[in-house]
Amino acid sequence: MTESQATQALTAAPERRDLIILGGGLVGMTLALAAARAGLTSFVIDRADPADLVAEGADGRASAISTASWNLFANIGLGPRLDALGCPIDSIAVTDGMKPGRIDFTPKPDEGSLGRMFFNRDLRMALFDAARVEPAIAWKVRTEAVRRDRGPHGVEVELADGTALRASLLVAAEGRQSPTRDEAGFAMAKWEYHHRAMVTALFHDKPHDNTAWEIFYPAGPFALLPLLDDAEGRHRSALVWTVAEKDAAGVMAMPDAMFVHEVAQRMHGVLGTIALAAPRMSFPLRFHHAGKVVDERLAVIGDAAHGMHPIAGQGLNLGLRDVGALVEVLTEGMRLGLEPGDAQLLARYEKWRSLDSFMVMSVTDGLTRLFGVPGRLPSAARRLGMGAVQRLPVLKRFFMDEARGMSGKLPELLQ
């Protein structure tokens, strides 16, 4: 080979970074930024156009960010941008159909809130703005991986335009329908709840006092989550109303006025007169849990690894715990001279996350089934148990720590 040919071959060689992250959503982009803070470079590949994801009115959903997840955002430098955009959750009221025997989770004044509510759009905008100016992140949008090769010496991904990228580790953060996870042949425990979540936001004339309501009905939970007042001072809350799949089409077909009437009936006037504050959306509810979350030079995170009922609002938070654990494992490996795709590091990540995610998901699934049993006797038994929790500080402390995401072995980034 001549010197000229050698130069051309080097020029044509794919660029190599530490990570290739497939999926630039909330979990994938948080991983890229957290990895950059730890000195790891990445490619982030996403088929979506970021402008579409943050367009006004494109997505009215909001997410409950636990205390641990907020610590993660603050530790990767997003605190100043997000601090004024989140509504604190100062208390959570849990009730079986608004009957007597509810539980009130309210921390002491010096303990801080139980979490914060953010519009997904605000979270995305903060993440995307930070990624654009981070040299350790190469962000490839409006494209997708058409080939993924993993081997003993690294990974190579080919994009739709023929571009080839190389890295030490491939991370699948593509969501519930992850093609990378499926291509790797991961066994999945999964089932349908035969329910659909109706998601929107509401204006209401009474202040919510930073209280989240979880009202359980036999047909499914009905959650009201506090949001900041809008620019005109109107009070707002996010709504997640779970309905049976057989009724979902009819509910979505309702005119807005009828929909608001049905919602108001289930609220029992706790927030006064209500009106829609965002477009109505619906999502099928399913459980899935990957039996393994690593393979040769591959790690799976977020909804690609686990998906659950939104009853406790822990889906995104569980994915952010994946991020913290993976970055910590890779960082410690780098200090020992190991590369990110090292099998020992991936085994440690899997051991750390598998038990934690399975425990959270099992509790969530159990609550869904427990509160879904109809009838007066099951309702009475539930309210009896809730009354016991209300009277026992130790049990209340346990549930509040779970809501904050502060239980178990926490990665440093979430502390």
Explain the overall architecture.
There is one protein chain. This protein is an alpha+beta fold. It contains 13 helices and 20 strands. The chain has a single domain, classed as FAD/NAD(P)-binding domain, CATH 3.50.50.60. It is 37% helix and 29% strand. The strands form three sheets. Strands 5, 6, 12, 13, 14, 15, 16, 17 and 20 form a nine-stranded mixed beta sheet that branches. Strands 1, 2, 8, 9, 10, 11, 18 and 19 form an eight-stranded mixed beta sheet that branches. About 2% of the residues have low confidence. Pathway: Cofactor biosynthesis; ubiquinone biosynthesis.
List keywords for this structure.
nine-stranded mixed β-sheet, 13 helices, 415 residues, eight-stranded mixed β-sheet, 29% strand, FAD/NAD(P)-binding domain, alpha+beta
